[in-house]
Amino acid sequence: MNDLQSLRQVGVALDTLRCRGIILAHLQCSIPEIFEPVAKDGSRFRCTENWVKEFLYGHLSWSFRRATRAAQKTPPNVDQILLDQFLRLSLTIRDCAIFDAAFIVNIDQTNIVYQPSNTSTFETTGSKQVSVIGQEEKRAFTVVNGISARGHALPLQLIYEGKTSRSLPSKSTLQYKEATELKFKISYSSTHTYWSTFSLMCEYVNDILVPYWEEQKALLDAPADQECVLHLDVWSVHRSIQFRMWLDMTYPWIKYRFVPGGCTGVGQPCDVDIQRPFKLAVKQTQHADIVNESLARLTHDSSASLIRLDTTIGTLRDRSLQWVVNGYHAINKPELVKQVCFSFTCIVES
Question: pTM for this structure?
Fold first, then answer.
């Protein structure tokens, strides 16, 4: 408890993930036998998130102070809009003579925060002032996911904020080697943000999307100009004249179709069922990092009065590769992707 109280006194934000990691490390180091006894129902003590919340409230009178925001609103006629989208895609698939589901790809961008819940923390219940270090910052990077209706998860594109290669994870790490073997594209944004840009979208198409389709065309003995469908949301860069003209001139056989505005959460396969298991795997790996680092510090000095975790951007950036590698393995399952793209597959087969 002293570790947690000391961290809060200096303004460090403590969410359930971090508190659980520190508590778990202490238990494994000091009383590892607590995980061995078996209860009458056959269960064992697992230090769950619910237990952590009850422990913090019962011993420290801490509760979680969370910011709120309005949920995205879908159009009132969302059912009709999604039906229209389905019919437009059906017409495109028919007119383009798309005979295999591999020629339909949906992509989506999401950001991964290095330190989740920076603006929320456990604090004494009833506190009127809750100070948090770095409350104004949101250090993150962007991941571009892509899936085909055939059941394939395309390699990821990772975009880090910065203007030189020094903004990228270190090439000397084992995680970098594995990411390279999985054909991930690791890029810096060349801007002051971590979001994709026109040039990075062109890079994704050139280095990930087109090579995938060329490989599938060769396997299926399809002509080089076999038309394919790129399904993406109506983000400003995607629907910009610059990007659409570049696609039309460079790859006229790519037919792009947009998810209707306000319907991403219900009409985009990647957003509906792919991002959730991906981000869950990322969260679990982040938690493992906290536990492992806490254990390493306690093992080195069991009398340490305060565990200070390394939150420097260089360390977190290097670790981020393992987060996304594990996330990719969580979604790179044909049965999962096919289930997500079921409606597309039905159109092609019919």
Answer: 0.76
